[in-house]
Amino acid sequence: MKKLLLILLCLPMIGFGQNVSNNINWLDLNEAERLSEKSNKNMLLFFYRENCDFCEKMKSQTFTDSTVINLINENFFPVMLNGKSKTRITYNKKEFKNDKANPEDQPYFHNLFKELVDMKEGNYYWPTIVIVNGEHKKIIQGSGFWPKEQTLRNLKHIIN
């Protein structure tokens, strides 16, 4: 009886699928570009900024759900990018930077963010997900916090 109880308690920890992951397999942008160019998978670019409550909520709630994790890992090359980073980024063989890259300046929108994200009603919203294909063409963008259900619905719509 004790052995049966121990087995039943341990089963949820073992997992039943080979493809199940506990984390999204975030990639470097250059690696995601390379892989996307060679395959049928699109890139999922998640733009966030520091001190953004909705960005953190998306990371801690939506991106920790096993269904969301598996859907993203199986169908996209995911990349997480700070939309206000001061780091130079190469994308599609072009270099992008932050226009206010002086260390003492407050971070401004990174030019890659401004290149890929369209304003809504004259504003940028955080976080923003942009889906880009292997030819660097934007398929769709979505801004703001997406709960699990909305993320699954939106991403499944893109896949199908």
Detail the topology: elements first, then pairings:
Layout: H1 2-14, H2 29-38, E1 42-48, H3 53-60, H4 66-75, E2 76-82, E3 89-91, E4 94-96, H5 111-116, E5 128-132, E6 138-143, H6 148-159
Parallel strand pairs: 1-2
Antiparallel strand pairs: 1-5, 3-4, 5-6
Helix pairs in contact: 4-6
Distance, first to last CA: 47 Å
Count of helices? 6
Shape: globular
Task: Please trace the helix and strand order, writing H or E for each element.
Answer: HHEHHEEEHEEH
Which class best fits the helix and strand makeup?
A: alpha+beta
CATH topology: Glutaredoxin
Radius of gyration: 18 Å
CATH C-level name: Alpha Beta
Q: Name the helicity range.
A: 25-40%
Quaternary structure annotation: single chain
- Strand-residue fraction? 15-25%
Regions with pLDDT < 50 over 5+ consecutive residues? 4-19
Structurally, the number of domains stands at 1
Question: Describe the biggest sheet?
Answer: 4 strands, mixed
CATH architecture designation: 3-Layer(aba) Sandwich
- Arithmetic mean pLDDT: 87
Number of strands: 6
Query: What's the CATH H-level homologous superfamily?
Result: Glutaredoxin
The strand order across the widest sheet is: 2-1-5-6
